[in-house]
Amino acid sequence: MALHCSRACKQYLLHLAQDNIEFRLPEIKALLSLRGKQFCPTENFKERSPFWVLNNVSEDDVLSIMGRTVCAKSVFELWGHGRTPSELQASLQKYPADDMAPFIQKESTYKINVYTFNKTLVFKDRIKKIDALEFLPFQGKVNLKNPEHIFCLLEDYGSDPNNIPDEPFCVYFGRWIADGQRVLIRSHSVKTRHFIGNTSMDAGLSFIMANHARVKAHDLVFDPFVGTGSLLVACSHFGAYVCGTDIDYNTIHGIGKASRKNQKWRGPDENIRANLRQYETEQFYVDVLVSDSSKAIWRQGPLFDAIITDPPYGIRESTRRTGSQKESSKPAEDFGGESHVPVSMAYHLSDIFSDLLSFAAHCLVIGGRLVYWLPVYRPEYREEIVPLHPCLRLVSNCEQTLSSHTSRRLITMEKMKEVEDSDKQALVLESRFSPYQGHNAFREKYFSGITKRSGKSDGSTLVNGSD
Ligand SMILES: C[S@@+](CC[C@H](N)C(=O)[O-])C[C@H]1O[C@@H](n2cnc3c(N)ncnc32)[C@H](O)[C@@H]1O
Predict the structure, then answer these.
(1) Residue pLDDT, tens place only, 69-102
(2) Where along the chain do the CATH 3.30.2130.30 domains lie?
(3) Distance from the CA of 225 to the center of ligand 1, in angstroms?
(4) pLDDT tens sequence across 313-339
(5) Whose CA is nearest to atom 5 of ligand 1?
(6) What fold does the segment set 7-181 form as a domain?
(7) Which CATH architecture has domain 188-454?
(8) Does ligand 1 come within 6 angstroms of the Cβ of 409?
């Protein structure tokens, strides 16, 4: 039950969206930590519930969270809650009159909404619920069109659509404070984006990644597998300076075949800079380069505040890196006798991830975050297969299912310390003695599963434009 001690220990009710459920807690935790606050769960906290009560935070904290979250729909100053109408009434009657006073004045206008989760109520029943709140000391006038204060009764009927109870499991009443940023999911949809590719990251997930990475104004953010720059779009929205690299010359230069239906070739201004211009964040564009992420091109030392990326997993695009004929199995004559001829080599997924972690360990600032997608074959998944690094702490690991047997996991890591010689030695030993190479066969496992299930082998069951 809510503790109504004083203004200082108010509680806030988050109403969360029910998509991307696993990504919500790390998002809210990351946004709270940007304010120097921790998530303090209540006794009956349920991670999959659409309602969470926030303790030990101020109204400024929740306003700042709502200014960024794409997982939460709205936040309310919680005035009371209970399992039954009488428990709710008792809880509301304990809410300090001083805290209510500014919002129930005679001169003020207000309205009360009713929101039900997992049940639809007819209009008559909604009115009944509002009438049952008549014990609240509202003195102002009801104004349905343009009220000064909005209140909401929120009822939770559980999450089983086949077993909806007559009465809610829990009821909350509070003053609406703010909505989250779910409008960004539509306003930044790749459907209406200027420059897109086959693997452009969905807008909602891009913003979630930027939030998990705690990207903030004036940060410098880097995407080593930048593609069409969807992640840079999200980071620049939060005022970070953005840059990236990609091995694909056409993608970086915005030329070649278009990905849109009914369009053969990319237009003259289809590039990442133009995407940022579309969302009025061009001032945060640093640059993008054609470069192979398996090669070190950056000076050693802390450079980036965040590294946020979606590496290729070889489904829609090959995982390639540059090499020389010395590394190739082809005979030297095939290269015309030249001493160094760059060739394209397979870039194994295990190497992509160990290179990425090593790069992050060297080039992130302390406290900076690496956020990336790890594809997994679900029957083989164990937490131990998530790549680790002695300088990076695993912050969160959230699954997004792609098919019955494959998924990708959004991994967030934070740099704890600079790389020392002992860390390099530990990594060499680790790669020698615990070489999980299962990542490398992801492509084969992905297609073998699809073939078994549906006979398809074109990757068409992928969601959200994943690679
Ligand atoms: C999954 S896509 C990234 C999509 C991107 N997030 C977007 O929204 O468009 C992976 C990208 O990695 C690039 N890539 C593949 N191998 C690479 C390498 N060795 N170095 C740099 N980029 C590489 C591919 O060209 C592709 O654009």
Answers:
(1) 999 999 999 999 999 999 999 999 999 999 999 9
(2) 7-181
(3) 4
(4) 876 666 777 776 666 555 555 555 555
(5) 227
(6) VC0802-like (3.30.2130)
(7) 3-Layer(aba) Sandwich (3.40)
(8) no
